[in-house]
Automatic annotation (TrEMBL):
Single GO term (MF): metal ion binding
Record-listed Zn(2+) binding positions: 135, 138, 153, 155
Deacetylase sirtuin-type domain: residues covered: 5-245
Protein name as it appears in the record: protein acetyllysine N-acetyltransferase
Keywords: Metal-binding, NAD, Transferase, Zinc
EC top class named in words: transferase
InterPro entries: DHS-like_NAD/FAD-binding_dom, NAD-dep_sirtuin_deacylases, Sirtuin, Sirtuin_cat_small_dom_sf, Ssirtuin_cat_dom
Catalytic-site annotation from UniProt: 127 (proton acceptor)
UniProt xrefs under Pfam families: SIR2
NCBIfam families per the UniProt record, alphabetical: PRK00481.1-3
Originating organism: Desulfotomaculum nigrificans (strain DSM 14880 / VKM B-2319 / CO-1-SRB) (Desulfotomaculum carboxydivorans)
Keyword Cell inner membrane carried by entry: no
Record keyword NADP present: no
EC number from the UniProt entry: 2.3.1.286
């Protein structure tokens, strides 16, 4: 019997054993980690945001420069959802795993900041974040809230959010994440379709991969375990089974 044909409880037990045996465990999270907080995902087969709009026309640097007013009107519809959301069991469980020393940190494709709000200390935001914006002309930084009332800098330059838009280069956090994965023995891929490059290639840097995602991913066949269940449920059960034990990164 293949590991992924085992019962849910058997797979959770195996995952706990993999975490205990791993000297370096990292999490990689995508939009599916935040859907339980009410934030829509992007690529699910039924309700993904990119099934409804063309991101090149609505969430690209080209769209911003062409029509800033339309760009911000559209994007604040879901940015506001992100900013008002609260961490769910997935975020809290990952923060707990880090606190207990079982998890080095979280590499996230999400821009919602929910990992930090849940208490995670080591987070690499490979698609940026919604905390700030900056001027494309002079580089001056502002709080993101400024974009609600004005999308030009005091110098007259156009302001852009500190998120990775279609057409952008990857931020420094992405290259740091590649370094973080050096020697990674176990990568927990949570709520990511693993379809967006270059992040989709990160699992190749880990010795073992576990997938927790409702929809299939390109890495399912080579993964040690695959869960189609709720990420919040799986990770909460992992935390429960680990109990008060501490891992290799525990600092007390």
């Amino acid at each position: 019997m293949k590991e992924n044909e085992l019962s849910y409880q058997a797979r959770v037990h195996h995952l706990v054993q993999l975490i205990k045996e791993s000297g370096k465990t990292v999490a990689l999270t995508g939009a599916g980690a935040s859907t339980e907080s009410g934030i829509p995902d992007f690529r699910s087969q039924d309700s993904g945001l990119w099934n409804q709009v063309d991101p090149q026309k609505s969430v690209s640097i080209r769209a911003l420069k062409k029509d800033p007013q339309s760009f911000y009107r559209f994007n604040f519809q879901w940015w506001d959802v992100c900013l008002q959301a609260k961490p769910n069991a997935c975020h809290h469980s990952l923060a707990r795993l880090e606190e207990q020393g079982w998890l080095l940190g979280v590499i996230t494709q999400n821009i919602d900041g929910l990992h930090q709000r849940a208490g995670s200390q080591r987070v690499w935001e490979v698609h940026g974040h919604l905390r700030s914006c900056h001027c494309l002309h002079c580089g001056r930084m502002f709080d993101l809230a400024r974009l609600k009332v004005e999308y030009h800098c005091t110098c007259g330059g156009l302001l852009r959010p500190d998120v990775v838009l279609f057409g952008d280069a990857m931020p420094e956090d992405y290259y740091t994440a590649e370094q973080v994965l050096s020697g990674c023995q176990l990568l927990l891929v949570i709520g990511s379709s693993l379809q967006v490059q270059p992040v989709a290639g990160l699992p190749r840097l880990a010795r073992r991969v576990v997938i927790i995602n409702h929809d299939p991913t390109p890495w399912d066949e080579s993964a040690e375990l695959v869960f189609r269940e709720s990420a919040g449920q799986v990770l909460a059960d992992v935390v429960k089974q680990l109990g008060n034990n501490t891992g290799p990164y525990y600092t007390g």
